[in-house]
Design goal:
five-stranded parallel β-sheet, Rossmann fold, five-stranded antiparallel β-sheet, globular
Length: 208
């Protein structure tokens, strides 16, 4: 489903980050670990089509993602890739439900039942008509997870999805991510420094 080959990224001439090759089949889950500054978020942005690597390739279903034109990349990403950012980026003028409807529209889908199911599963269905500014940090994070899953993506990329959650909500979110990935036969890649997750996922990549 997802394969990388000889990925590198240079922010400056002297600042080169080299990443290990990844092969993540449909239904697989990978945990990417590492201390701050080793490039975890940079790698996630490359895998999500948000940052073109200086060198190397990212293939989804055998197609090199960076062969896709910039004009078509947003639609491609909206359809195939669900990204859970460390900091939620919501349209502040829209409610939680409206933000999810917008994500569906951008991905070319429309399924209000899916939105209701996700919000209920994440225990934030009572926040559907609230604006992002009225949510706690943990509620924003769960709403961001719902948005990433709303189009049944084939690749789910999660940047610190449990960092703001207590143990109970952490376990619920992990179970939901695994469940959604299994139902969609999607590859799930989690970038984190949350050591609670190392005991849950066997497939781990440590960035140095």
């Amino acid at each position: 489903m997802l394969q990388t080959l000889q990925l590198e990224h240079h922010y400056t001439v002297k600042d080169k980050i080299t990443f290990p090759d990844i092969i993540c089949k449909a239904g697989d889950t990978f945990l990417i670990l590492g201390q701050s500054g080793v490039g975890k978020t940079t790698l996630l942005h490359i895998l999500g089509g948000l940052l073109r690597p200086t060198k190397g390739s990212v293939s989804i279903d055998g197609k090199n993602m960076y062969d896709i034109s910039a004009s078509k990349m947003d639609a491609y990403r909206g359809h195939y890739i669900g990204i859970i950012f460390q900091q939620a980026h919501f349209v502040q003028a829209l409610t939680v439900k409206e933000n999810l409807l917008l994500a569906q529209q951008m991905g070319g889908t429309s399924d209000k039942n899916k939105i209701d199911e996700l919000l209920s599963s994440l225990n934030i269905d009572h926040k559907a008509d609230k604006y992002p500014e009225n949510l706690s940090q943990g509620e924003k994070q769960r709403a961001a997870i719902a948005r990433a899953l709303v189009n049944n993506p084939k690749i789910i990329l999660a940047d610190e999805p449990t960092s703001a959650l207590d143990d109970n909500n952490c376990n619920e979110v992990v179970q939901l991510l695994e469940q959604q990935a299994k139902e969609a036969n999607a590859a799930l890649i989690i970038v984190t420094h949350d050591n609670r997750l190392t005991e849950i996922f066997a497939n781990q990549i440590i960035l140095q």
